[in-house]
Amino acid sequence: MIVWLNGTHGAGKTTVSALLQPLIPDSRVLDAEKVGETLMDVRPGLPATDNFQHWAPWRPLVVETARRILDYTGGTLVMPMTVLVEPYWREISAGLADHGIPVRHFVIHADQDTLRRRIDGAHPGPSPFRLQYLEPYAEAARTWLHAEAEVVDTTHLTPDQAARQIADAVAHG
Fold this sequence. Notes:
Elements (H helix, E strand, L loop, with lengths): L1 E5 L6 H8 L6 E3 L3 H8 L17 H16 L2 E5 L5 H13 L4 E7 L2 H9 L7 H4 L2 H15 L1 E4 L5 H13 L2
Parallel strand pairs: 1-3, 1-4, 2-3, 4-5
Helix pairs in contact: 1-8, 3-4
């Protein structure tokens, strides 16, 4: 099984995934961003883009990496990764389904003011990269993302509380 943690950049997916992993027996974290980082190392480089998710190989490589790891280790993968483009999510989720891999899709959500405060207060400082995804996240949330996933509103939750809420949902359903 895969527990996919979606949400905008800076929402707390990586923090929650680290807290969630010990709460789900026989689980491990796979950050699909590492697949993108591998593609960024291809020399000479792939076509210029502002987001490695736009490279066609990224999506099937995420599916294949997850499948191979699950085949090798079994258990559950916790995957923190922002995917805000609906066709990209459809490609990934269909690829995982084709391999018989069930996915529990969660969105780590917070209201825009809270997200801005978290991004502005992040170490080592505010991230223009994260800020630029606030509106695309809001659009995805309005149009498809929140309908496709279990939304965990972290506006008033600590990361530990969010992790426990997700673990409880996975354990009971």
